[in-house]
């Protein structure tokens, strides 16, 4: 029986070959095991290739560098997170008032960062990476909600302002050096939302 091939979709990259998809999955699984066992700080693409039983060139061609591989490790969780705030149940998803959705989004984003803190700490070292990809989706989502609560405000700036404190380095500092609990961090984020979205007299 001949293998069925998917037709390309306009605006999307061509479908992967089966062997390329298998190699990608092997690399992701190997890297996930290594991060779980030893952390992400010393993750080496050469060692990942050996663990996955693929050529080093395959890893570099597929992911480019260590940051590219770390981003791929986070990709599946990011997809689930985006599905939750775009189409999941309220208050994170549609159906709740915009202000409640903003608070729920920032709380969920903080939880997401804490779940993969070591990876986010490494990724945030590159500012260009920090403000690309998922950040853009998060920013558009927040700006859209802010426009409902604060018509006429500079929602592009305000979305950046609300996202600024939700980063791995600051949250790690708040918890480790200042002794803040996760609940206190989230309460601070909620207070910030209330201040930013307070109606003007």
The SSE string, one letter per element, is: HHHHHHHHHHH
Low-confidence regions: 1-13
Content of β-strand: under 5%
Structural class: mainly alpha
End-to-end Cα distance: 71 Å
What share of the residues lie within helices? 55-70%
| Total count of strands | 0
What is the helix tally? Answer: 11
What's the shape? elongated
Main beta-sheet strand count, sense and barrel state: none
Rg, Cα atoms, Å: 20 Å
Topology:
Layout: H1 18-38, H2 45-52, H3 56-63, H4 66-87, H5 98-115, H6 117-123, H7 127-130, H8 134-149, H9 155-163, H10 168-176, H11 182-196
Helix pairs in contact: 1-2, 2-3, 4-5, 5-8, 5-11, 8-9
Describe the structure.
The protein is mostly helical. It has two domains: 16-64, Arc Repressor Mutant, subunit A, CATH 1.10.10.60; 74-196. Helices cover 68% and strands 0% of the residues. The protein contains eleven helices and no strands. It has helices spanning 18-38, 45-52, 56-63, 66-87, 98-115, 117-123, 127-130, 134-149, 155-163, 168-176, 182-196. Helix 5 (98-115) runs antiparallel to helix 8. The longest helix is centred in the middle third of the chain and has 22 residues, at 66-87. The radius of gyration is 20 Å and the shape is elongated. The relative contact order is 0.09. The model is unreliable at 1-13 (pLDDT under 50). This is TetR family transcriptional regulator. Keywords: DNA-binding. Residues 44-63 bind DNA.
């Amino acid at each position: 029986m001949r293998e069925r091939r998917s037709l390309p979709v306009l605006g999307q990259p061509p479908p992967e070959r089966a062997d390329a998809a298998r190699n990608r999955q092997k690399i992701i699984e190997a890297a996930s095991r290594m991060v779980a066992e030893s952390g992400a700080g010393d993750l080496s693409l050469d060692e990942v290739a050996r663990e996955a039983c693929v050529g080093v060139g395959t890893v570099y061609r597929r992911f480019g560098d260590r940051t590219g591989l770390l981003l791929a490790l986070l990709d599946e969780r990011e997809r689930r997170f985006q599905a939750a705030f775009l189409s999941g149940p309220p208050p994170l998803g549609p159906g709740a008032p915009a202000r409640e959705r903003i608070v729920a989004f920032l709380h969920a984003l903080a939880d997401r960062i804490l779940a993969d803190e070591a990876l986010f700490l490494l990724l945030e070292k590159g500012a260009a990476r920090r403000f690309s990809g998922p950040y853009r989706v998060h920013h558009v989502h927040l700006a859209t909600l802010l426009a409902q609560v604060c018509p006429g405000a500079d929602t592009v700036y305000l979305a950046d302002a609300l996202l600024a404190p939700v980063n791995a380095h600051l949250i790690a500092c708040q918890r480790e050096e200042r002794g803040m609990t996760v609940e206190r961090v989230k309460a601070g984020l909620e207070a910030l939302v209330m201040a930013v979205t307070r109606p003007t007299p």
